TrEMBL record:
Lineage: Bacteria, Bacillati, Actinomycetota, Actinomycetes, Pseudonocardiales
Residues bound to FMN: P107, T108, G109, S136, Q158, T186, K276, S298, G354, R355
UniProt keyword terms in alphabetical order: Flavoprotein, FMN, Oxidoreductase
Cofactors required: FMN
TM ranges: none
SUPFAM superfamilies in alphabetical order: FMN-linked oxidoreductases
Domain FMN hydroxy acid dehydrogenase: 28-405
Record-given protein name: L-lactate dehydrogenase (Cytochrome)
Length: 414
């Protein structure tokens, strides 16, 4: 029989302590987000469908993006127990300079469309976190304004080569003059990918107030209010805008990009040169032979060629081929700090994330980006501790392997 009694007031007191009250509603929502998936759900509710789908979607049937996420979910870690993991060191040198984590925030286009704070917010958070951030050619903040927003940050510039090479020369010179230390040349966009969600949503840049978007705007008045009451949404590096993202890529970018252009950039760019969009071992070898300091294994987040190679699966063979001559970076499908740990264990110098921080940006502006970085950092540290590893530089292939049976069970992270 259960013996019942009347509890003493001193026994009830610890149970009646209220949780700390956060006055700001947005801050309360962000504080409750325990994963990037949670931030994604907040972003979905707070932004118009066309904007959310532009960030969330990929090309064609989105097979490439699903495969990338399934591959990260398939990782099997091998922990070593009875290790002192009371302190872990996540810092690592990336492209010649120290970063607080083996992580960088990837370049993304149209960033102020997700939230009016845009690239300035992302750059400020990256500077506070001690990690690099790459500004996109398709960014909505100028090269100089981003430096002004985060003067103590580490700035990279992502370059698309235009049909008009003089424009590209000017952008490269401006980035060098503003103190950017690394240039990321994207090579996987000879034409724009077929992003069906954008077609179905009728997305244009800037967003047009059609009957459909007007109806959607009624459910997201705050987003539209911010759009029309802040500086106009324009592209800082484009002289001509308007139309769909696909139209702009095909109108401006050069499909005749060749290895000669890599050699030219190596001659004119004084800093580190990264070739972004490498998807084969052979191409990695070619660009390193041409002078690249690093290769970024990427299928553009699944947004260009659907069913392209999965970047995670390329890490080990590319490191074996060029790892003694160039650094190997990786992106696409990374939504968890454990993915970053796995990437390093497999041989990557660092990982880049795009959607992960954009979900945070859409969910809560600068505070949302900070929350996304905080989540990734905590997941990374916890994964290392549970692995029994105290330094990022001590991660090795025996700590993580890609499981041959895939990772479809990790549905919450897709």
């Amino acid at each position: 029989m259960v013996q019942r009694r009347i509890p003493r007031p001193s026994e009830l007191a610890p149970l009646l302590r209220p949780a700390p009250w956060i006055r700001d509603r947005d801050e309360r929502r962000l504080a409750r987000a325990a994963s990037i998936h949670d931030l994604r759900e907040l972003a979905r509710r707070r932004t118009p469908r066309a904007v959310f789908d532009y960030t969330d979607g990929a090309a064609e049937d989105e097979i490439g993006l699903r495969r990338a996420r399934d591959t990260w979910a398939s990782v099997e870690f091998t922990p070593s127990v009875l290790q002192d993991v009371s302190r872990v060191e996540t810092g690592r040198d990336i492209l010649g300079r120290r970063a607080s984590m083996p992580l960088a925030l990837a370049p993304t286009g149209f960033t102020r469309m997700m939230h009016t704070e845009g690239e300035r917010a992302v750059a400020a958070v990256a500077a506070e976190a001690g990690i690099p951030y790459a500004l996109s050619t398709m960014g909505t903040t100028t090269i100089e304004d981003m430096v002004a927003a985060a003067p103590d940050g580490r700035h990279w510039f992502q370059l698309y080569l235009w049909r008009d090479r003089e424009v590209a020369k000017d952008l490269v010179a401006r980035a060098a003059g503003a103190g950017y230390d690394s240039l990321l040349l994207t090579v996987d966009t000879p034409v724009g990918g077929n992003r069906r969600r954008d077609v179905h949503n009728g997305l244009t840049i800037p967003p047009a107030l059609s009957l459909r978007t007007f109806a959607d705007g009624a459910r997201h008045p705050r987003w539209w209010f911010d759009l029309v009451t802040t500086e106009p949404l324009t592209f800082a590096s484009l002289t001509t805008t308007g139309g769909t993202p696909f139209d702009m890529i095909n109108r401006v970018f050069d499909p005749a990009l060749t290895m000669d252009d890599v050699a030219w950039l190596r001659d004119v760019w004084p800093g580190k040169l990264v070739i972004k969009g490498i998807q084969t071992v052979e191409d990695a070898r070619r660009v390193v032979d041409a002078g690249a300091d690093a290769v970024l294994l990427s299928n553009h987040g699944g947004r260009q060629l659907d069913r392209a190679p999965v970047p995670a699966e390329l890490i080990e063979p590319v490191v074996q081929e060029v790892g003694d001559r160039a650094e190997v970076l990786v992106d696409t499908g990374i939504l968890h700090g454990g993915d970053v740990v796995a990437a390093v264990a497999l041989g990557a110098r660092a990982a880049l994330v795009g959607r992960a921080y954009l979900y945070g940006l859409m969910a809560g502006g600068r505070a949302g980006v900070a929350r996304s970085v905080q989540i990734l950092r905590a997941e990374m540290e916890r994964t290392m501790q549970l692995l029994g590893v105290t330094r990022v530089d001590d991660l090795r292939p025996h700590h993580a392997r890609l499981h041959p049976h895939g990772g479809r069970a990790a549905g919450a992270r897709t």
